[in-house]
Amino acid sequence: MAVRERPVSGGLAPREETLGSPPNVNRADCPSRGVLEHVTSRWAVLILAALRQRSYRFSELRRQVGGVSEKMLAQTLQTLERDGFIHRDAKPVIPPRVDYSLTPIGHEVAEQVWTLTRWVEGKLDHVLGAREAYDGARET
């Protein structure tokens, strides 16, 4: 993989990309694969969907996304922030206050995963029926 410089505020930052070829998530070395893994992880989908409506403090978000541990929530938020999907706003007050919200590109990807979650919920009966039929055929 070649490294190409890209402009950012205050100078240039390296960006890994394969020069001369467009992104292809099916290619093992394509950086888009990692981004896809980040936004489609179990917890990222739920976090992004929750943040569609409003910003949340860490503890509020943990309650909103049932079942996520503090460690997994912190790791997932950090990954999504690094990828540019989430903005972390730490306010210098006592006690400390940190709010998480979506960036513009975060709103875009959140809409995509929201559509997927609604589709899954709408097709749940079909999937559960298919599982039951599959499992029943295996038992005989």
TrEMBL record:
The keyword Transcription regulation applies. Keywords: DNA-binding, Transcription, Transcription regulation. Residues 1-29 are annotated as: Disordered. This is Winged helix-turn-helix transcriptional regulator. Residues 30-128 form the HTH hxlR-type domain. It comes from Nonomuraea marmarensis. Pfam families: HxlR. It comes from the Bacteria. InterPro entries: HTH_HxlR, WH-like_DNA-bd_sf, WH_DNA-bd_sf. PANTHER family: HTH-TYPE TRANSCRIPTIONAL REGULATOR YODB, TRANSCRIPTIONAL REGULATOR, MARR FAMILY.
